[in-house]
Write a structure and sequence with these properties.
Elements (H helix, E strand, L loop, with lengths): L4 H18 L34 E5 L6 H11 L14 E5 L10 H14 L4 E3 L3 H8 L3 H6 L19 H4 L11 H20 L28 H17 L6 H7 L4 E4 L2 E4 L5 H21 L6 H7 L1 H11 L12 H4 L6 E4 L8 E3 L4 E3 L6 H6 L10 E2 L6 E2 L10 E5 L4 E5 L1
Parallel strand pairs: 1-2, 2-3, 5-6, 6-8
Antiparallel strand pairs: 1-11, 4-5, 7-8, 9-10, 11-12
Helix pairs in contact: 2-3, 7-8, 10-12, 11-12
Length: 426
């Protein structure tokens, strides 16, 4: 008697179903929440960042800039997590993120929540550094900073900061649901902000125009590029979006508290990781205070009522900011200086912050430029705000947004410490 085909395929079907269930961990949805707990939430992150010296290898992922889909894909690409069990495959393998999870793309919140969940589930394997964009976000919580900037925050810049598409992730959050009765209106507002931004870029005004409705910047407001019939709605909703955005990162919130604990330095075996770079001045502080000393001092001063005074009013605070923004290590002449900048036992420096199309290995393998433009929106349109899903042209024809590639491009790095081999993973 012939055996029914479905009986023959049953084991294979079971394997497929299990794999599909496991793939929920790596959801493709751009706007699905990434905050679902990966465990019961009782694990506490180990704040020491020099505790991975026994690692046999480390994967390093560069700037993700608001692209949770590619964040998940690159973590999946490492193979460090078993897709069926969710367990860390090899306790001697570490994973380092070099910062800049936010801005320039529309899923910054989901990217933060995803990376946060990894640090909480695998605290001894995963390190997530602070980037300069996370620092700017935390500084924006202090209203005094807006006064210095003429009434606006970094998050209101007309380029390189909070992507207009990001606001839907905050206006529809739990605390905003009562105010989000008309989702269609909000999509209309976001589309209007895209259109206005493109008009600004076509006129070369991106450094002058801000996404703010404040009376202090009325002549520089993006509202001047919004159609008159939409201006009142855009003003109302944009103001509300931005309030919820900043409030989501207060010191008493989950995301805010997590960001405040991000280290600026991580030492893994013989490699020092930092988002921006290490200047000669910063190197002296690292030698005197140690990696953990600098990280701990930042964590002690990172709350919203302390951070601005620490960064702008203390020498160590200025060093922290410099570590997040310094680009001098990329110069050809900097290779000879590199050994003098690194604390023992470090012999190599790995950084993000300075983008390229690929990872760059320089200075006889002693310097790794890891930012390979992993975020699709940044890779497509740079620092400008484009929708990504369609072509859009300014009315004067002098600027246009291309449709972005849906594939995750760029590279990540794996350092094998047993033979000091550096592997580039595409």
């Amino acid at each position: 008697m012939a055996v029914p085909w479905k009986w023959i395929l049953a084991p294979s079907v079971l394997v497929v179903l299990l794999a599909l269930l496991a793939q929920n961990y790596y959801s493709d949805s751009e706007h699905d929440k990434a905050s679902e707990p990966l465990d019961d939430g009782t694990l506490q992150e180990n704040q020491r960042t020099s505790n991975k010296r026994d690692s046999s290898s480390v994967y390093v992922i560069g700037d993700l800039h608001g692209d949770v889909h590619c964040a998940r894909r690159w973590v999946e690409r490492t193979g460090a997590i078993d897709r069926l069990t969710g367990e860390w495959v090899n306790p001697l393998v570490a994973l380092v993120f070099v910062g800049d999870y936010v801005d320039k793309g529309p899923t910054s919140r989901q990217t933060l929540e995803f990376v946060k969940s990894l640090t909480e589930k695998y605290p001894t394997q995963v390190t997530a550094l602070m980037g300069n964009h996370e620092m700017e976000l935390l500084l924006d919580r202090d209203g005094r900073r807006h006064q210095v900037w003429g009434g606006v925050g970094y998050f209101q810049m007309g380029f390189s900061s909070v992507h207009p598409g990001e606001y839907r992730n905050f206006i529809t959050s739990d605390e905003a649901k009562d105010e989000n009765e008309n989702a269609d209106q909000d999509e209309l507002v976001i589309e209007a902000l895209y259109n206005a931004s493109i008009e600004v870029y076509s006129r070369g005004l991106h450094r002058k125009i801000v996404l703010s409705s404040s009376a202090e910047v009325q002549d520089k407001s993006i509202l001047n590029f919004i159609a008159p019939n939409l201006k009142p709605l855009v003003k109302e909703r944009m103001t509300l979006y931005q309030k919820h955005y900043v409030d989501a990162f207060r010191s008493n919130t989950s995301l805010g508290a997590w960001l405040e604990k991000r280290p600026v330095l991580a030492l893994v075996q013989n490699t020092l990781f930092v988002h921006g770079g290490v200047s000669a001045g910063a190197a002296k502080y690292i030698a005197a205070m140690g990696v953990d000393g600098i990280n701990q001092l930042l964590a002690q001063n990172a709350k919203e009522d302390k951070l601005l005074d620490f960064i702008k009013g203390t020498e160590v605070g200025a060093v922290v900011y410099n570590l997040l923004t310094f680009r001098g290590n990329h110069k050809a002449s900097a290779c000879s200086q590199l050994p003098n900048l690194l604390p023992a036992p470090a012999k190599r420096l790995g950084v993000g912050h300075t983008p390229g199309d690929s990872v760059r290995i320089l200075c006889n393998n002693q310097f790794l430029a890891i930012d390979s433009s992993l975020g699709r929106w940044f890779r497509n349109s740079g620092n400008n705000y484009c929708p990504g899903h369609k072509v859009q042209i300014a009315s004067n024809g002098k600027y246009g947004c291309d449709k972005m590639n849906d594939q995750c491009e760029g590279q990540i790095v794996k350092i094998h410490y047993h033979n000091d081999k550096i592997e580039i993973i595409s």
